[in-house]
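Worked example 3 (structure in, sequence out).
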């Protein structure tokens, strides 16, 4: 009889242990070290009192939010060369940092941000699957902490964030539908999804594909239901963390 447990001892619908640590990058306006199991990402938000040149030239009002993502050379089992050594940013990096930016812009009112640019930097310290989902989850927390500093300093009159946002992976591995895949499952998954959702349960983005496989409509719905379960739990963890941090400020 096949064990219901996965190789790391989790149930199919169970998240890896998730932890948040604030203040990991003291020079950023807000920062968080986020851990999904052994995947660890530093998410730092820096707010600059300026906007991109294109906004000024086009007369676009409000502020801007942009994200950058990188995997540090020692984050993987074999050293990963820095993009600068190759003379270009690789396609995966571009895709992920655009996803992080889109995810956060979905929940922010850029008019309320004022003439400021919110930079979000996500740097992977240790990669064991789900680096993009961990980055989005931690990036929201870093941004929220950074914005609170501006509110406390009277540089913003109100919070421009309308909701929280988080992300998680789901997939089919060895015929089973699983939540929050580590690398060992993700690399050989038959179907792989990344789901981004707000705290109020609205989808921001769903990225999914069969890896040399197909999936049915019923499996699609089942995977989305599994992701929603995990994201509800992550949103609760985010709320608890922020409540604790904002009480300190």
């Amino acid at each position: 009889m096949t064990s219901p447990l996965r190789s790391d001892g989790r149930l199919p619908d169970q998240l890896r242990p998730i932890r948040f640590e604030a203040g990991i990058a003291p020079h950023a306006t807000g920062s968080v070290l986020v851990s999904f199991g052994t995947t660890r990402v530093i998410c730092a938000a820096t707010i600059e009192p300026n906007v991109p040149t294109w906004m000024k030239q086009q007369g676009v009002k409000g502020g801007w939010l942009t994200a950058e993502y990188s995997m540090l050379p020692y984050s993987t089992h074999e050293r990963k060369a820095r993009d600068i050594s190759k003379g270009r940013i690789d396609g995966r990096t571009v895709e992920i940092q655009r996803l992080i930016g889109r995810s956060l812009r979905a929940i922010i009112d850029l008019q309320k941000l004022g003439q400021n640019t919110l930079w979000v930097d996500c740097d992977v310290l240790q990669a064991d699957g789900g680096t993009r989902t961990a980055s989005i989850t931690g990036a929201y927390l870093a941004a929220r902490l950074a914005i609170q500093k501006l509110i406390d300093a009277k540089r913003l009159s109100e919070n421009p964030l309308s909701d929280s946002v988080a992300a998680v992976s789901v997939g089919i591995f060895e015929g089973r539908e699983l939540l929050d895949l580590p690398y060992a499952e993700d690399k050989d998954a038959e179907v792989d999804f990344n789901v981004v959702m707000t705290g109020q349960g609205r989808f921001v983005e769903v990225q999914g594909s069969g890896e040399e496989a197909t999936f049915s409509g019923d499996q699609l719905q089942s995977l989305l239901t599994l992701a929603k379960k995990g994201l509800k739990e992550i949103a609760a963890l985010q709320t608890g963390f922020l409540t604790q941090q904002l009480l300190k400020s």
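Notes: Residues 217-248 form the longest helix (32 residues). The first strand starts at residue 18 and ends at 22.
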